[in-house]
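JOB MANIFEST
job_type = single_chain_structure
chain_count = 1
residues = 154
[input]
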Amino acid sequence: MLSLQSKAPKRHIVWKKWNDPSTQIKQQLQNHMRTQLLQHLNTNEYQDDDEKDSVYEHNFAKQYEMPTPIEVTCELLKFNFWVGHTNFNITKPIVKILDSTDGVETLELVSRYRFRVGIGTAFNEGVVKNNIASSITSYFNHNKINEKTHNFTA
């Protein structure tokens, strides 16, 4: 019986979508605010439904009217981030491959085996990730590199 490890390629990248924790917190806060507003509207008595609707619309519009300049800037800084977990060292040649791949907008080295890339909106994330993996595989195959050290073999 073959183990799962023997079926895995010698060198590979496991991709995980990176979600900005501040975005999650902001969404939770907005949901909480909506819940509080609805509870407030349901507990207060209004003379008729039209009055209740107008109060709700006013409060909702007031809270979610126009984004502030900071919110606009935050939207512009949102990236489609992916974390690549590798089973090989990320060396200077690997960084060069990552940085030169079409569609990679940002690159951040997290550790010896981990990096984060921001993929441009105009690019297909699956294609970009496959191109990264193919380029790195080609690099290892072409240069006959030792998988652990990246040293050239004789």
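[summary]
The chain has a mean pLDDT of 75.
The radius of gyration is 25 Å.
exit_status = 0
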